[in-house]
Design a protein that fits this description.
α1 runs antiparallel to α6. A 6-stranded mixed sheet has the order 2-1-3-6-4-5, sandwiched between helices. The N and C termini lie close together (9 Å). The protein has 220 residues and is an alpha/beta fold. The mean pLDDT is 80.
Amino acid sequence: MKNSFGFLRFLCLTVAFLCFSGYAYSSDKPFVVVIDAGHGGKDAGAIGYTLKLQEKSVNLKTALKLGALLEKEPGVKVIYTRKKDVFIPLDDRAQIANRAKADLFISIHTNAAENRSAKGTETFTVGSSSANLEVAMRENSVILYESDYKTKYKGFDNSSESYIMFDYIQSKYIEQSVGFASTIEKQFSDMKRSSRGVKQAGFWVLKQTSMPAVLVELGY
C-alpha cells in the first residue's frame, strides 16, 4: 500500500490525541484500542489478481505495525484480535473488544472488486443494511466458515433478507465513529491517496461492539 507507513503514523497520532482530549480518557485507566486484523487462517479474504497476495496477510502486517506505533504512546493499551495467521470467528472479534471495555475498535481490511480499475480507500461505520450491501455481505461471509453460525448469529445467515434486522438496531456510538472515520479519510486525501469517503454498512463486527468502531479498507 502506497504511503501506508505515513497513514499508520497519522492514525497512531490521532488515537493518541483522542486519549488526552476528553474523548474517552480517564486518568485511572489507559485508553484501550483493539486492533482487528480482518480474516485469517482458513479465511484468506480477497486474493490479488496478479500477485495472488492474500488479504489476511496484508491486514495482519498492517495491524501489527499500527499496534507497535500505538504501544509507544503513553496511556495507550493495545489489544489485538489476532497476532498470527489464525481464524477468529467474527463474533469473537467483537467480544474481545467488549470484554476489554475498549475505548476504540479498529478493524483493518483490504478491498476487492471485479472491476480492476477500482481504487481508493474507504472507512466504514455501522449503518443501514441497505447501504453498501455488497461489501458488507463479502466481509460478513466469514461466518459461513463456522459450523454453528445459524445458532451463534441468531439466525443471521448473510442473505439479503437477514440484513433487515440491522435496520432496527441503532448504535449509540455512531456519531463518534463517523467523526473518527472522517478524520481517517481526510488524512488519506491529504496524503494524495484516492479516498472513496466515509460509508455506512451492516458489518456484524461493528454492530456487536460496544464502543466507537470503524472498519478501514486500505485500498484494492
